[in-house]
Structure formats: C-alpha cells, structure tokens
Structure prediction request, 393 residues.
Amino acid sequence: MNSHQRPSMTRRQFVTSSAAALAAGGFIRNAHASDKISPALQQTARGPFRVIIDTDPGVDDALALLLAMRSPELKIEAITPVAGNVPLEWTLPNALRMVEIAGRTDIPVAAGAKSPLLRRLVTATYAHGENGLGGAVFPEPKTKPVNQPAAEMIRQIVRKFPGEVTLLPIGPLTNIATALNLDSELAGLIRGVVMMGGSLSGGNITPAAEFNIYVDPEAARIVFQSGIPITMVGLDVTRKTSLTEDHLRELQAGQNPVSQAAATIARNAIQHNRERGFVVGPNMHDSLAIAGFIDPSLLMLKEYYVDVETTGELTAGETLGYSPSAGDLQRRPGTEKDTSAMNMSIRGSAPTLAGTRTSPVVRDKFIPNAKVAVDVDSARFFNLLIGRLSGKQ
Ligand code: BDR
Ligand code: CA
Prediction:
C-alpha cells in the first residue's frame, strides 16, 4: 500500500498518535514515515530558519507576528505587509506597531501591494474592524518602513540566500506573485512556502473560497503553479483554532508587553465577534500556519495537486485539491490495472460548445504540488501560541 492509498487517520487516531509521537520526538517523522515531507518542514528540527512573513494585519496576523517574533526557530529577514483584511494604509502601520511591541525594530518592514493583481480590493473589516485590530488602539508607530517595495525586498533577500528562505504568507498572495513575476528564476531559489490560505472543505467569504485566495486568485494561481514546495494550511484545519475567554485570561496574566498587547487585541476581537452574533471565535488562522512551520508535528499533511479557480462567476478563489486517494481523478482507458497515482490525469471543466474542442485534461499526470494540512492537534497548537505570547515558554 503506498502513501496515496493509505486510509486517512481518524481525528481521534491523529490526536492519540500525535501525543505519542511527540513523546517519541516528532509526529510526522514517526507516524508518517513513508509520506514525503516538504523541505521547509523537514528542517525545523535544526533552525533557525530564514523566513519572510507576508501579512495583512489583521487580528490573527497580529498575533501570528507576535508569535513569530518570540520564536527562536525563526530568523525573520523581513515583514512585508499587503492589502487584505484592511487596506495597506492600516496593514503597514499595524505591522510596524507589532515590531515595536515585540522590541524587534531590527526586522525590516517593506510596504507591499495596495491592491490585488487584477481585481479591486475586498477587505474583511466585518471580521477585523476598520483598523484591522478589532478596534484595539495602539500608538502611531515611530518606526518607518524601509525604502523599498515588498516584492523587490523579497526578491533581493531570496537572491542573497539562495535555497535558504521560506516564505510565510498569511494574507493575499499579491506580493509573492509580484516578486515571482519580477524574476523568472526566483521560484527555484525559494526553499518553500508555508501559507495560510485556501480550503478543500468550503470557503469563508463565499461557499467556495477562503478569504486570502478570494482576494487575489490570480496571484494565488501563480504561486501554486510556481513549482515552489508549498504547504497549505487552510480552513480545513484553521477552523479548529477558535480563541476562547480562557486563552484571553492567560494572555492577560502574562507580565510582558507582548502578552499584554495580544490580550488587548484578543479582547477587542472576541468582543467584535460577539457583537456581530458569532458565539465562538475568532479563529487563529494565521498563527496556525506560523506554528505549523515552527513545529510540523502539530499538523497532519497530505499531498495534493492544488489549483485555483480564477474564472468562476461565483467560485473564483476556490482551491481544488486533486488526490488519487480521494478517487477524484479519471483513469485513462487501458490503465485500469495501473495503480500508479502518477499515471492519473487531472481534469478541468468540459469544453463548451462555443469554445475550444480541446481535451479537458489539464495535467496528464498526477504530480502533487502541495502538502495540505488535513488535521491539527489544536490543544498543542494553543499551548505553543499562548505559551510563547504570555512568556511561559
Ligand atoms: C484568512 O483571512 C483573513 O481574514 C485572516 O487574517 C486569515 O489570513 C482566513 O481566511
Ligand atoms: Ca491574514
């Protein structure tokens, strides 16, 4: 039985084996020895790793940035804000506020795109408030962004450390796609992308699309088709990361500026959510992507070929995950006895009468382009997040 044929673990089996594997020194290497792990994730035992965090703060972005800046496994080469949850006029100063709160003004912050590649910006102020921090107010930052656009900064850092830099995008992928468009060799020099984005189980802004991919689906498609090893931490797992009042109390008890700032953001965000009728949340989507890079044993990963819907009238931004084990790939006539996943083709929509008569086969072999997180040990994730923010670990 190969890794594609192996039945998925149940959640109970995952949590049980996760705890056991943690005791043994790492869930994925032990419990999934035959699964291929992306290079970015294989390395996390050694660290620190050069990373660039591309972000649209954003309540969960803000906490993710604070987590990252308190994590010795990460050597943060730059933070590159992008328009997303709120316009760049907010995401840029919010990112600068976070580096000041964390005492990490040594990290360069470079202003990114004000709008998606080909679309008008759609924001998520309904979830993050007009200021992106759920209404939590912090002083104007004194720190200035560097005098270089985000995409150029990404390009230069990757060129300076070829094969060493992992990109951690937790917002729309506009800056990353722009950097790839600037330099045709760049993708081959990037160690990996570990992103918060996408979903194989329905969206959160439309029934089809997750917010980050919805905002700039053309950029997302460029990234997924770039050949960079991708780990997709999407709604399939981030929906299981609801911040609670207990977490808030732990943050409030933390005697350091990061914990106090995180508590202020969390309190405002919880209140903002409750006022809008949400009985749980907000989810810590972005922190999970960062945490999954720091400690891959938090996530169960499965290989997929992921593509992004860009032309759908209702579905643009949907991420489609092709996987032979899901039985969703067609076999070519005559290959029924061939159990090799690599021989299975990937199909798009059938051609219309008005359009081309070419085959709907868009890839004639199944070659995965992403590891998709399909389960998470939420309790251990929150131990890491709250522990690091509050200063307990
Ligand atoms: C993603 O969208 C944003 O609202 C969050 O910051 C997160 O990156 C979740 O869909
Ligand atoms: Ca975000």
Remarks:
- The CA atoms of residues 167 and 193 lie 5 Å apart.
- Residues 56, 58, 61, 84-85, 170-171, 286 surround calcium ion (ligand 2) (CB under 6 Å).
